[in-house]
């Protein structure tokens, strides 16, 4: 079956299955056309830079890395930029969240080091990981990274857990663990991943958007993108721990967490292949960013041999068709919920805007990651 399914993918492409390269090219071009809006040092910009870099690595003809490099250079040289301040040991006030501003974006510099051996880029990423991730000051008694900001009507001090922070806070350290052979980094990632799962997983297996440790209460809703961030984080954490022979138990745990989460969201996939803004409420709108994140996570899980291809390939195929229905001829992507904090009611999620120019913090870059991952699946590429 592992041989037959990639061949089936090539046949589907020949019969008119939407071509990932074409869609990636459109999306990337439109992002670059709006770079003044989307090129920002924050978590949405991190996902966009990461997506553009992955696109260039897999589709060499769609290569915007010179533009990415010039932007990274400018931010490293601008005294008002985070990049300059990090490289010159200028203190940056703590943000309200571990990865929203400083903590996630350096994956763009890490990518640059991987392809260009740029020592300055690596130094910046390492400094952020050591100070702003591993040194994050706000935590629960369990050690889980937390925030002081929750959702309306809740009281607490440094007691709030956000599903978003799994990806934003752990990804840089997870990737550095492998690159630098830092087992301690991988151990940190694994322990945090388990703690996130312990408090956010609902009885159905889908994750709540937030949790207040002061009241031991999960937030109201199973927001799609919070689950997308979590699934992407599961993949990053598993890749990190499986690299170290001494962490085989942690790798088994992360594998189980990933499989459990995927099993919970698959039955909630809509007929056209997409998932809803609130995963357990089919009256909410079909949302693009969580669909892209789920597709990327499932296809990467298949490629890595964690998820059974015969079981999950049809899910990925449907998700890809659904995702491409949101990409217009000029590369604008529709249906991405804008950046969203933990909301107090389902109606507050239901009415969130989906304007394209506000979709950077909404996970626009995940569309590129999904296109690359799905193309690798079609052609039988990627690690097994």
Description:
It is a single chain. This protein has 384 residues and is mainly α. Helix content is 55%, strand content 3%. The protein has 16 helices and five strands. The chain has helices at 4-14, 20-33, 35-38, 43-58, 65-77, 82-87, 107-116, 119-133, 165-180, 183-200, 224-241, 248-265, 288-303, 309-324, 346-350, 365-378; strands spanning 160-162, 210-212, 217-218, 275-276, 286-287. It has a three-stranded antiparallel sheet, with helices on one face. A two-stranded antiparallel sheet has the order 4-5. A hairpin with a 4-residue loop joins strand 2 and strand 3 (217-218). Helix 9 (165-180) runs antiparallel to helix 10 (183-200) and helix 14 packs across helix 16. It is globular and about 50 Å long. The protein starts with a helix and ends in a 6-residue tail after the last helix. Mean pLDDT is 95; it is low at 1-15.
* Low-confidence regions: 1-15
Intertermini distance = 14 Å
Portion in helices:
40-55%
Percent of residues in beta strands: under 5%
The best one-word shape is globular
Summing up helix and strand content along with how strands pair, one would put the structural category as mainly alpha
The largest sheet, given as strand count, sense and whether it forms a barrel, is: 3 strands, antiparallel
Count of DSSP strands: 5
Helix count, per DSSP? 16
Strand line-up of the largest beta sheet? 1-2-3
How large is the radius of gyration? 19 Å
SSE succession: HHHHHHHHEHHEEHHEEHHHH
Overall pLDDT level? 95
